[in-house]
């Protein structure tokens, strides 16, 4: 109810925001639905291609107007032009080049962790890889950009919204030595579905740029699975050091992973490595290793695809259990064999890319 009341108040406040060509924003046909969550307000202003800059002052005024009635919520306003429609029929990654890629202040390197499809253990890998990089002495942050299945808060044992400074900048959660922020903290379960397209990419952009990362060597970004708009806009707008791909051996010919790899190549994102998850099974009673899906497939595929192979992570109950309990294995059992697999992957990554080190 409060959400509807606030959405109404924002809409009224937008009545005082003038737009180019006359009229006000509340009555403008390009204004999207106003989404209100416990922590945020988001809406988009669709404009004709080329009109983005002209709408800049209206965006700023809209932001201030919404903040004034938002009862402390973070306001995310995006101005979007309808380029996507103009370029329909072309694969997304072949569209006209996007805006200039920008770095994130206070962050030396950004590494995206992606996968071709869901459920391969991408988030689990992102979390443990981030922790393993921190164990190597790097200052590491973690951004959960998986809007449709944000799992980082659970994996890292984080609850509630991040704190916000008086100037509207997020203060990330601190967990297991990492600075963490999740798009999931901003949404209730049913809202991810609504919060799609330009609003999702705009929300991600703001989370990335309006967080006090406080000096990081590496920010690990857990992408949504697949090759959608969020991945493409992040790659087009942000100066990424590169991407790590997670795949399972079941994904035999890595068909889905290859699609993700292909998208990243088209977007000129360096491929830093491939992690094979649920690679082998260690019997809990005897400790014997079983290569249930055959051995070496992903390594061979990585080689053929010319991507460094960062190693295999075993399928072990401890990984699932510690994840479910918000105590990821690299933090809670750093000496275990499974933590060792992530640590080995992080070391290989650092050997291949020594510039990631401070
Ligand atoms: N190596 C592993 N051994 C055992 N369980 C694992 C392993 N890796 C991931 N899991 C479990 O598999 C499930 C899926 O993992 P995760 O959420 O990381 O996948 P994902 O690819 O990020 O999925 P989504 O696409 O839904 O975000 C989780 O229950 C997780 O605990």
Automatic annotation (TrEMBL):
GO MF:
4 iron, 4 sulfur cluster binding; ATP binding; ATP hydrolysis activity; ATP-dependent FeS chaperone activity; metal ion binding
Task: State whether keyword Iron-sulfur applies.
Answer: yes
Q: Which family does it belong to?
A: Belongs to the Mrp/NBP35 ATP-binding proteins family.
Biological process according to GO: iron-sulfur cluster assembly
Q: What is this protein called?
A: Iron-sulfur cluster carrier protein
Q: Where is this region: Disordered?
A: 80-104
| Cross-referenced PANTHER family | IRON-SULFUR PROTEIN NUBPL
UniProt keyword annotations, A-Z: ATP-binding, Hydrolase, Iron, Iron-sulfur, Metal-binding, Nucleotide-binding
Instruction: Describe the function of this protein.
Output: Binds and transfers iron-sulfur (Fe-S) clusters to target apoproteins. Can hydrolyze ATP.
Q: Where is the composition biased (Polar residues)?
A: 80-91
List positions binding ATP. 116-123
> Quaternary form?
Homodimer.
CDD domains attached to this UniProt entry: Mrp_NBP35 (cd02037)
């Amino acid at each position: 109810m409060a959400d509807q009341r606030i959405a109404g108040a924002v809409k009224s406040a937008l009545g005082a925001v003038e737009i180019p060509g006359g009229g006000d924003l509340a009555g403008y046909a390009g204004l999207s639905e106003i989404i209100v969550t416990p922590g945020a307000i988001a809406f988009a202003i669709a404009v004709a291609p080329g009109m983005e800059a002209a709408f800049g002052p209206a965006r700023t005024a809209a932001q201030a107007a919404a903040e004034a009635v938002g009862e402390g919520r973070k306001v995310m306003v995006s101005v979007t032009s309808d380029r996507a429609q103009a370029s329909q029929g072309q694969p997304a990654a072949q569209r006209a080049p996007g805006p200039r890629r920008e770095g994130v202040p206070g962050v030396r390197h950004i590494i995206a962790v992606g996968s071709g499809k869901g459920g391969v253990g991408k988030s689990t890998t992102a979390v443990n890889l981030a922790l393993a990089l921190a164990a190597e002495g790097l200052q590491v942050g973690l951004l959960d950009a998986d809007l449709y299945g944000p799992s980082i808060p659970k994996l890292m044992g984080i609850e509630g919204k991040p704190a916000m400074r008086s100037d509207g900048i997020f203060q990330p959660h601190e967990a297991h030595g990492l600075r963490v922020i999740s798009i999931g903290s901003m949404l209730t379960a049913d809202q991810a579905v609504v919060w799609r397209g330009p609003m999702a990419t705009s929300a991600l952009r703001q989370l990335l740029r309006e967080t006090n990362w406080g000096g990081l060597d590496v920010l690990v970004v857990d992408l949504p699975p697949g090759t959608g708009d969020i991945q493409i806009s992040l790659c087009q707008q942000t100066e990424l050091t590169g991407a790590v791909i997670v795949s399972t051996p079941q994904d035999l010919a890595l068909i889905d992973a290859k699609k993700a790899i292909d998208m990243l190549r088209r977007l000129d994102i360096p491929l830093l490595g491939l992690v094979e998850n649920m690679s082998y099974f260690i019997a809990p009673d005897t400790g014997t290793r079983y290569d249930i899906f055959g051995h070496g497939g992903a390594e061979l595929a990585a080689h053929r695809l010319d991507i460094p192979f960062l190693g295999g992570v075993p399928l072990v109950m401890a990984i699932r259990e510690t994840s479910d309990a918000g105590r990821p294995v690299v933090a809670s059992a750093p000496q275990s064999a499974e933590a060792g697999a992530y640590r080995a992957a992080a070391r290989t990554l650092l050997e291949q890319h020594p510039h990631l080190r401070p």
